Automatic annotation (TrEMBL):
This is ABC transporter permease. Pfam families: ABC2_membrane. InterPro entries: ABC2_TM. Residues 22-221 form the ABC-2 type transporter transmembrane domain.
Amino acid sequence: MKGVLRDMRSSIHHREFWAYAVWLDIATRYRRTRLGVGWLLLPPLAYVLGIGYLYSHMMGGSPGTFIPHLGFGYILWRLSIQTMTESADVFAMHQAFIMDGRTRFTDFILRTFAKSFLFFMVGLLVVVTIVLMVSPTNPAWLLTLAFTLPVLFLNILWMSIIISLFGARFPDTKEMIGTILIFGFLLTPILWDASMVPPETIRGLVMRFNPFFHLIEFVRAPALGAMPEATTLYAIGAMSVFGWVMAAFLYRRYARFVPLWI
């Protein structure tokens, strides 16, 4: 794992390229609008309150229970798909930098993650505020985010590394990832609750083969005062270890071919 860890550590210590570039991208995108970066607040606010209120009545549940469930699911799902989708062509998008000699590829991966992370943190601020206003949830449970979110980020990063390498080698990767994520959204309990699909049923087993189910539940359940399923804890542990081992192997073996592929 020395290759990817060495580059990742170096990228974190020298973050001028990816951290500043992300903020510059956001500032440039919104500087001519009336609300500026305030537009970052509107999508999660509209989605969580609008869709949450509508679906809570369609499901016959309480808005105070369903809206927090939807809110956390939405921002965690958006973080995951935004990072992975953009990772699929991140090297091709930075071809000029790579051909110019910048071959510390974790800079580009972290740039993609940092952009998604910025949107996520704005969404998290919105969701936490809404949860405190509409939900009877004990605010102390939200402190579990300090422990669960880093684990989620680490899993998203190893997925991003693998997808970026595949995307450099196979240009169709982005379209394939987008297609897979359409079905992944339907199989992930965001607009519905996992209790509706018990684990002993066929649909329950299929849903629990979905890694995004475990990633989201691992963060969301403790934040809302529930305990994740034992299978979720096992899955997260296995994904964290084997995912990084696989990412490190692929990075060490194939990263040097990226300039040729793109």
